[in-house]
Amino acid sequence: MPPAFSAAEKARITKLLLDNGERLFTTQGLRKTSLEDLVAGTGIAKSTFYVFFDSKEALYLDLMLAQMAEVKGRVIDQALLKESDTRAGLRAFLHATIAELRDNLLYSRLVTHPEEMDAVVRKLDPERVTAAPDNPVTALMSFLTEHTDDLVTDDPAVIIGVLQAVLMLPLHRDRLASPDLYTKILDLLIDIISSGLTRPAGA
């Protein structure tokens, strides 16, 4: 029978597990992180881990969901929706998302290692991600659907695909012919893409 924990003990251990998970998942990844790694320093046995989380994938998902509202705030609310027109909004969104992927190690890991997100979704209910009210991808899709008159295509999935292609550039900056010009190249690319995806005013 698993040990009983007071509410305070459970909260303390849960936080330790989440802290361990964030550190380990961002440095060595989901597959290489063991239950023994996750419970280190928490004072619980590996078998007791399951009192707190159903699996290490569930812990990973909880970390993502805990950050989701903050990420949406930065890339959607304070960037995409803050601008007065669709073109400027897309430009702001791309810049904010590039910054997020640079500074947020967990979300950066998801972009550079998509197989980890696939592993989480395979093991858990994908609705927990797609139906989350603060999902930035869902918010972006809603924005694009509402602004089809401003866009060169009425298929939001195509627009999202183009935006994702831009977000891949930082992963390959060292392969540019002139890596020292990365910032200027990125800024110009974002301007070109934002302009190319949107119709001229009054069109």
From TrEMBL:
What single Pfam family name could you report for this chain, choosing any that match?
A: TetR_N
Keyword Transcription set for record = yes
Query: Gene3D superfamilies annotated for this entry?
Result: Tetracycline Repressor, domain 2
Query: Which residues fall under the DNA-binding region feature?
Result: 34-53
PROSITE patterns the UniProt entry points to: HTH_TETR_2
Q: Locate the HTH tetR-type domain: which residues?
A: 11-71
| Keywords per UniProt | DNA-binding, Transcription, Transcription regulation
Keyword Transcription regulation found: yes
Q: What's the superkingdom here? A: Bacteria
What would be an example GO MF term here? DNA binding
What protein does this entry describe?
A: TetR/AcrR family transcriptional regulator
